Amino acid sequence: MSPSLTLRAGPEALRLIRERGLRARDVDIVPGASGGPKWLVLAGLDRVLFGEFFRERSRPLHLIGSSIGSWRLTCLALDSPVAALERFAEAYLAQRFPPRPPPALVSRTSQGILDAILGEDGEAQVLAHPWARLHVMTNRCRGLTAIEQRHVQTLGLALGALGNLVSRRTLGLHLERVIFHSAGDTSPFSGLADLPSVHVPLTRGNLRPALLASGAIPLVISGVRIPEARAGIYRDGGLLDYHLDIDYGAGEGWVLYPHFYPHVVPGWFDKALRWRRAGPANFRRVLLVSPSPEFVARLPFGKIPDRDDFVRLTDAERIRAWRQVVAESERLGEEFREGLATGRLVERIQPL
User: Fold this and answer.
1) Tens digits of per-residue pLDDT, 167-214?
2) Could you tell me which SUPFAM superfamilies the record lists for this protein (predicted)?
3) Which single residue of 104, 165, 182, 312 has CA 20 to 30 Å from 190?
4) Within the chain, which residues score under 50 in pLDDT?
5) What is this structure's pTM?
6) Residues spanned by the domain of 35
7) Type and span of the H or E element at 287
C-alpha cells in the first residue's frame, strides 16, 4: 500500500534532521492551522505526537495555533493530552445543528466543546505546564467587521477581501492580530511585523474566551469580548493566519508542522486565490507532515472533512463519515511511529 504520510522540509530543517534524525528534543515550535473539521484527519497522528513523541520533553516547546489549531494544541498543553484529544473528538463529532443555525447556538455548542477539552482546571494545567508554551491567535475587529448585524459584518468582510486582492497588508485596516500566550518574555513571535500584532499574557480569566474567539468564524459564531485584553470584538484567528504563514524566528532546532494539506494558505481571504500560497521564506526550518493524496482518496467521499459536510450530509451520515475518518487517521500515527523506529521517515523527507 502507498504511504499515508507526505513529509516535506525546508532547507534548514532538512539539514538538521539528516544530521541528527527526527528527535523530539530538537523541535522548537509546533503550529496548528485553522480548518474546522479538517483537524479530524490528523487525530491519529496527534495521538502519537502528543502522547508518545513528546512524552519525554523537558525544554520549552512553543505551540501556536489559530482557530481549531489552537484547540488541538491546547490538548498538548494539558496534563493528559491523549485523553483531552479523545474528549475533543467526541464532543466535536456530536455537534448537531438545524438548517442555518443562529450564531448564538453555534457559540454555545463551541463553548461546550471547549469545556469538554479543558474540564474544570484546564486553565491551571496550561498555565503551569512544565514545558508547553501555548500561543492562541485571535483578531480584534475594526470598523464594520466588529458589528454583529449580519449585513453590516458581511460588508466589512467584503471590503477586507477586496483590499486583500491587492495586498495582505490592507487587512490591518480591518483586523488587529492579538496573540494570547503563556511564554512570557520567551515567545519567538514577539517580533512579528507583517501585520499589526499585539501580545497578551494568558490568564485563568482570559484563556477560555481567547480560545473561543480564536475559533469564532465570522457570520457563523458570535464575536467574543475577552477580559484582561483591549476592549473590542474578537474573532477567528484564521482570518489573518489561516495556515500560519508567519516568521518562525531563529533557533537551534526545527518546526514540526502537522498539517492536513501539503501546502500553506496565508489567510482566510486567500482560500480562493490559487496564486496566493506561502513562499519559502518562513519555512526554512519547517517539517510539514501531511496526509498523502493516496490516503485522502481512501477517505469517505475521497476528501478531508470540511464545514460543507454540515449542509450536504444528514447528521447521521456526517457523524458516520467523520468517525471513519478518525479511525482511518490512526494509520498516520502508526506510520509515523514505525518510521521513527526504523529511521525510514528521514529517508522519505522531500524538499519543501
Assistant:
1) 999 999 999 999 999 999 999 999 998 999 999 999 999 999 999 999
2) FabD/lysophospholipase-like (SSF52151)
3) 165
4) none
5) 0.96
6) 5-351
7) strand 286-291
How crowded is residue 260: how many other Cβ atoms within 10 Å of its Cβ? 20
Of 229, 191, 198, 196, the residue nearest 212 (C-alpha) = 229
* Entry field: residues in the chain: 352
Output b/e per residue, 135-163; b: 16+ Cβ within 10 A. Answer: bbbbbbbbebbbbeeeeebeebbebbbeb
Question: Under a CB-based contact definition with an 8 Å cutoff, are residues 99 and 64 in contact?
Answer: no
CA distance 201 to 172: 22
Instruction: Count Cβ neighbours within 10 Å for each residue of 278-292 and write b for 16 or more, e otherwise.
Output: beeebbbbbbbbbbb
Q: Are 247 and 149 in contact (CB under 8 A)?
A: no
Q: Considering only CA atoms, give the Rg of the chain.
A: 19
- Segments in 143-224 forming alpha helices (H): 150-166, 207-214
**What sign does the dihedral 335-337-343-347 (CA atoms) show?**
positive
Q: Please choose, from the candidates 230, 239, 245, 244, the residue with its C-alpha nearest in 3D space to the C-alpha of residue 163.
A: 239
DSSP class of residue 225 equals -
Q: How far is CA 145 from the centre of its chain?
A: 22
Distance CA 86, CA 65 (A): 19
> Nearest Cα to 74, choosing from 65, 272, 83, 131?
65
The three-state (H, E, C) secondary structure of 42-60, written as one string: HHHHHHHHHHHHCCCCCCC
* Amino acid letter, residue 152: V
| Strand bridging mode 61-66 / 132-141 | parallel
